Amino acid sequence: MARYARLALVAILAATAAVGASIASAEPSEAADDRIATTLYPGWNLIGWINEESPPAELLQELPRVASIHDGVGGAAYRAATSAARPIAVLQPGKGYWLRVSPGDPVTWARPSTLAVRRFDLDAGFQFIGWTGTDGILASEAFAEIEQQLVAAWRWDAASQRFAGWAPDGHADDRDPLRIDRGAGLIIRLAEPVSWLHPFDLLITFPGGLDDLGYPDLPEDFAATVRSDALWAAEMMSSRFGLEIDPGRLEIRIPTTRDALWHEHDGRRPLGGGGFAASSPEKQLIVLPWTQWRFNARRSLAHEYHHILQFELSGGQWVHAPAWLVEGTATWFGNELGGSERGGQPLAGGELQYLTTDVDLRSAASAPYHEVHHVGLVAAAMLADRAGPESLVEFWANLAGVSGRADVPAVFRETFGLSLDEFYEYFYETRRPLFAFVSGRIRTSDGPVPPIWISAYDTGRVDTI
Question: Quick check: 395 and 330 in contact, CB under 8 A?
Answer without folding.
Answer: no
